[in-house]
C-alpha cells in the first residue's frame, strides 16, 4: 500500500504517456496491415509503466531489460503457473506431465537474476522504503519483483485483453456512450478525480471483471472448524480441509445478478449498482471491502479498477472507433 501511495503523483502521467506509445505502435502496424496483434506491445507497455510506477526503475536505463524484460517476466510466470492451469491437452497426460511436480528454478534463474539486478540498481528509492518496514534489501527486492511481475503485470496481462475486447465488441451504441462520457466528464486532463463522474466507464470495468476475473480460483486451508453458510445451504468445514473459491461461479449467481451470463454495461450504475459491488468478488473479497492483513484481499484492487477506467477513458478520447478482439485490433479511427 505504501508503494501505491508513493506512486500516486506519477501514476496517471506515466499511464497516459506509455499508453500513447503503445497505441502509436498499433497505428503504425495498422498502416501496413489489416490487423495488428497487440499482446506483445501491450505487455511491453505494462512492463515499462509498472516498472516506473511501482519500482521507480526506468527500463530504458538498461538495454537488456528494455528489450527483453517483459519476456523474462513471462518465462518466470509460466514456470509458476503451468502446474496450476489447464492448457487443453489430453487427460490424464496433462495431469501427469504438467501438474504433478514443481518446475526447477534453474529454468528461469538467469532471467530472474537479470530482473533482480535491474531492480537492485535502479529501484533504490523503493527498496529503501521496504528496508524501513523491516525487510532486508534481498527481501525487499524479491517482494517488489513479485508485486511487479506476478500481481500487477500478470494480472493486467490477463485483464486488459478482455477489457479491450469488451469495448470493441460491446452492445450497439456502447462506444458512443463511453466516448461521450469520457470527453464530457473527463475534464481537460484525465486524473483520478475524473473517474468520479464516469459512472458508465466504471460500470463497464466492473462488469468485465465480473464475467472474466483475472484470477478465477483461490485456495486456502481452514484454520478451524466452522460452518460455511449461503442463502439456502450450510456446510460444515473441518480444520485443515482444503477450500477452493471459484469466482466465476460466485459472480454469475442468478439470485444476485439479473441475466448473469449477459454483459450489461450499466449493471453497476445508480443505487442498485452500488449495492451489487458487495457481490463483486474479483479481488478475493467484495469490491466494497477494504484490504487488510487478515482478509488477504488484493491490496491493489482500487488502483486496478481506477487504472482500467482511465485506460478506457483515454482510449475513447483518442479514438472515435475501435474494432478488434482479445488478441488483435483491426481498426482505429482517430478522434476528429
UniProtKB/TrEMBL annotation:
It comes from the Eukaryota. Heme binds at residue 298. Signal peptide: none annotated. InterPro entries: Cyt_P450, Cyt_P450_E_grp-IV, Cyt_P450_sf. Keywords: Heme, Iron, Metal-binding. Pfam families: p450 (PF00067). One of its GO terms (biological process) is sterol metabolic process. GO terms for molecular function: heme binding; iron ion binding; monooxygenase activity; oxidoreductase activity, acting on paired donors, with incorporation or reduction of molecular oxygen. Its cofactor is heme. CDD domains: CYP74 (cd11071). SUPFAM superfamilies: Cytochrome P450. Gene3D superfamilies: Cytochrome P450 (1.10.630.10). Belongs to the cytochrome P450 family. This is Allene oxide synthase. It comes from Trifolium subterraneum.
Amino acid at each position: 500500500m505504501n508503494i501505491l501511495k508513493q506512486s500516486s503523483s506519477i501514476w496517471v502521467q506515466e499511464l497516459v504517456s506509455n499508453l500513447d506509445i503503445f497505441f502509436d505502435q498499433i497505428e503504425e502496424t495498422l498502416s501496413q496491415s489489416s490487423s495488428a496483434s497487440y499482446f506483445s506491445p501491450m505487455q511491453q507497455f505494462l512492463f515499462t509503466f509498472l516498472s516506473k510506477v511501482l519500482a521507480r526503475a526506468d527500463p530504458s536505463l538498461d538495454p537488456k531489460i528494455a528489450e527483453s524484460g517483459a519476456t523474462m517476466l513471462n518465462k518466470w510466470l509460466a514456470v509458476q503457473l503451468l502446474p496450476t492451469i489447464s492448457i487443453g491437452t489430453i487427460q490424464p497426460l496433462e495431469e501427469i506431465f504438467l501438474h504433478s511436480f514443481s518446475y526447477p528454478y534453474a529454468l528461469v534463474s538467469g532471467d530472474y537474476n537479470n530482473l533482480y539486478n535491474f531492480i537492485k540498481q535502479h529501484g533504490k528509492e523503493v527498496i529503501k522504503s521496504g528496508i524501513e518496514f523491516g525487510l532486508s534489501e534481498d527481501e525487499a527486492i524479491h517482494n517488489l519483483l513479485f508485486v511487479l511481475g506476478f500481481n500487477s503485470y500478470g494480472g493486467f496481462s490477463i485483464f486488459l485483453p478482455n477489457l479491450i475486447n469488451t469495448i470493441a465488441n460491446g452492445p450497439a451504441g456502447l462506444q458512443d456512450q463511453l466516448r461521450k462520457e469520457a470527453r464530457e466528464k473527463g475534464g481537460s486532463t484525465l486524473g483520478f478525480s475524473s473517474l468520479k463522474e464516469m459512472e458508465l466507464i466504471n460500470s463497464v470495468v466492473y462488469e468485465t471483471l465480473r464475467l472474466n476475473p483475472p484470477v478465477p480460483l483461490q485456495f486456502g486451508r481452514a484454520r478451524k472448524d466452522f460452518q460455511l453458510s449461503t442463502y439456502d445451504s450450510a456446510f460444515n468445514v473441518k480444520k485443515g480441509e482444503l477450500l477452493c473459491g471459484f469466482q466465476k461461479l460466485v459472480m454469475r449467481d442468478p439470485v444476485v445478478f439479473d441475466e448473469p451470463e449477459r454483459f450489461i454495461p450499466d449493471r453497476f450504475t445508480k443505487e442498485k449498482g452500488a449495492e451489487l459491488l458487495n457481490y463483486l468478488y474479483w479481488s478475493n473479497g467484495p469490491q466494497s471491502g477494504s484490504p487488510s492483513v487478515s482478509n488477504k484481499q488484493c491490496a491493489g484492487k482500487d488502483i486496478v479498477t481506477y487504472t482500467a477506467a482511465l485506460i478506457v477513458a483515454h482510449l475513447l478520447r483518442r479514438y472515435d472507433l475501435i474494432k478488434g478482439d482479445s488478441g488483435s485490433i483491426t481498426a482505429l479511427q482517430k478522434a476528429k
